[in-house]
Amino acid sequence: MRLTRTSDLWWKNAVVYCLDVETYQDSDGDGTGDFAGLTQRIDHLVRLGVTCVWLMPFYPTRERDDGYDITDFYAVDPRLGTLGDFTEFVRTARDRGIRVIADLVVNHTSDHHPWFQDARSSRTSKYRDWYVWCDSPPEDGPEGVVFPDVEKSVWEHDETTEQYYLHRFYKQQPDLNVANPAVRDEIARIMGFWTQLGLSGFRVDAVPFLLETDGQQDADQLPDPHEYLADLRAFLGRRSGDAVLLGEVNLPYPDTAKFFGDSESSRGDELTMCFDFIGMQQMYLSMARGEAAPLAAALRERPAAPRDAHWATFVRNHDELTLDKLDDEERAEVFAAFGPDKDMQLYDRGLRRRLPPMVDGDRRRVELAYSLLFSLPGTPVLFYGEEIGMGENLAAEGRQAVRTPMQWTPDKSGGFTAGEGAELPNPVVTGAFGPTRVNAHDQRHDPASPLGRMRTLIERYRETPELAWGDYRVIDADDPGVLVHLSSLEGGAVLVLHNFSERSVTASVEVPGLRGGRLLTDVFTGDTLKSAAAGLVDVALDPYGYRWLRVNTPLDDPDRATAV
Ligand code: NOJ
What we know:
The protein is of the alpha/beta class.
């Protein structure tokens, strides 16, 4: 394919890397990571092949939800540095060809945000209508708390003004009223501010909740929330043409697809990318069963993103590894395989573990997951530490178990801080996945290490844009353990096989449009393989093995081809 397209729609084969400044690298020994420390680590990201850093919230906060409760949208939390440090980081990243996006958390503020402080002071406050109030929780209002371990209702009584306010998340996070034009203006101002300082877009927090108007008295008369999302995207486009909105939407596929924008008049005018929560959950089910079927079904069912939009794929994120879209039995299977102890589970719907400990450190299974991440269609999003095979620390509370300090060296604090005895944001991982055994320094020069392997996967993924961009089809394999997909674009095609089972298998695959005697080249080894008969190729796979095979000669139009 023409590579000019990949720089134009850069997000379509980007490598996104999510990190929290607080836990990445402390530069001044106070025990808290900071922008200065992160900037010093930029070349780790360059070597890895990252093209876009996603910064988790770095704004002033009360720390009731690890930074997702913001008290000032226009500043940097002083513990992490200054605005100057922020811009130095963005500039240095840019210099290395890395874009930076950040969390946009505007479904709610902290209850200590000056807007809410003012709003709750009286019913006639200027900011009263910036939040959602009611005299008594309405029956048709939103249902279901997100953090059932702590909250029992999405409404909290406010004693001063004798009304209830809406909070989808913790009660310390009152929901903003985005139906209010003043709030909408302010959200645009926030986006404008950070793009002006060099951000290339945002990971939009909790999008369905942001757009929700249930429970508001005038919900029926409010404008279509999707129009609002389209407005936001248009605004962003005017400010910065190549900026993106990467949205957190965890809904069934047809509902998520709407957030790309699918009105009759315009398709693809809302979120640039949506996370593929369904595919992620089905991948774990496939891994638990040793069978390709669950993931194959998800890939077949997944709606195509609009032309310039894309799905964003991931193995784990900073939250609990949610399994909420599996049915109870399926979830129980994944729990049994990867997190049998109650303490490893969270909210009855997810796991607070990272992948390597889930598979008892089995490198083959870890690599299988990352080979899927980089070869399935979609933009891969990594969570810091995945590249070196970090584990979790279950001694940390709730979701914090996977938000432990990055492990740079074998030192006690993993090289995260030089501060002796400084209090850390979260405890460092201990045991088999602690810094002595798992750290970036020791893996740096070893191509066979997790870091070396991840680099290779990323390099090949970037060299093979058909994977991210191409039309893909899932092909039936003659073995239940094997997932086969073919990505093709402008005459180029890549055949990809993953073996979820612990058996060695030779899969016979029918490749539409592939003529007999054609060569396929292994993208990792350069070895070639010949199609046996017309349209047929036999591929040997190790237990949990994978192959990416470039088809050397253009396929006949796979849709029309009758293999010759
Ligand atoms: C989703 C974020 O991923 C999560 O960490 C946070 O707690 C909630 N949104 C609330 O902002």
